[in-house]
Amino acid sequence: MLIQIVNIFKRGDFLQEKWYILDTGYHDAATNMAIDEALLQFHAEGIIQPTLRFYGWKNPSLTLGHFQKAEKAIDFDAVKKHGCDFVRRLTGGSAVLHDDEITYSIIVSEEHPKIPSSINEAYYVLSKGLLEGYQLLGVNAEFAVPEEEAKRQRSDVCFEQPAIYEMLVDGKKISGNAQTRKNGVLLQHGSIPMSFDLDMLFDLFNYPNEKVKERQKQAFKHKATSINDITGKTHTYEMMRDAFLQGFEHALNIQTETFQLNEDQWKYVEHLVETKYRTDEWNFKLKKSMRSI
């Protein structure tokens, strides 16, 4: 019996582990992605504890999935017209327009006892915080478990197709999440929209013609929604942050301690911004020798 009790405590079923909570507010797209990668690296080096981060976007921003082909999917004249930032993510998946939303990221070791080795199971564990956050905001969300046919479909636009264990309300996708594992650390981040600008969203992607684009835009209204549309209320960044912080704390059985990046850590973020996330080599997957062509 004593051994069983000790094992339960080792798993953390009763003990509330302490994680960091970092609210970085609003930054440009390159800085936001650099902060996520920096946190992953800091945790891999044992400098910081597991971390939950919330952030917003200084400008409308289009993030491209790690393996997506930028020139094929994106209309860069429209990106410029709408004043959007553009950056490639560390994580996979389809392109996401970040605008009127709050974004979260979770940085935790792959070896953490709460984290399953399976990607889908890890999504399920970490996304429970999203489920509870929506419930605290009065939204009856549920997990998506796509049928096999849906899994085979592909779209350049993230919110057109739910992935396993993403959030649905009345069959419509309400958040988008992506995950990667690097240096023994898991990074999961996700978009939690308060509202959508459909005209801007569909301007940013290439379509064969205007008729196809309009058809896709109308179909999107039946595939995705936002919390403002569901509730008929206008939500703020602070309202969303507080609800999802509470949701993650309860779902993961953690306590959070406020954390701020120090001067040296910000310098590393700025290094990543200038040497990676603002470069054509990263964002367009070009070799350095091709940059001037």
Number of helices: 12
Task: Estimate what percentage of residues fall within beta strands.
Answer: 15-25%
Straight-line distance between termini: 70 Å
Computed structural class? alpha/beta
Give the strand tally: 12
* Elements, N to C (H/E): HEHEEHHEEEHEHEEEEHHHHEHH
Q: What's the average pLDDT?
A: 87
Helix content: 25-40%
> Rg to the nearest angstrom?
19 Å
The 3D shape can be described as globular
Residue ranges: pLDDT <50 for 5 or more in a row?
1-14, 147-162, 288-293
What does this entry look like structurally?
40% of the residues lie in helices and 23% in strands. The strands form three sheets. It has a six-stranded mixed beta sheet with strand order 10-11-6-2-1-12, sandwiched between helices. Strands 4-3-5 form a three-stranded mixed beta sheet, covered by helices on one side. The protein has a three-stranded antiparallel beta sheet with strand order 7-8-9. α2 crosses α11. It is built from twelve helices and twelve strands. Residues 1-14, 147-162 and 288-293 have low confidence and may be disordered. The protein has 293 residues and is an alpha/beta fold. The longest helix is centred in the middle third of the chain and has 18 residues, at 119-136.
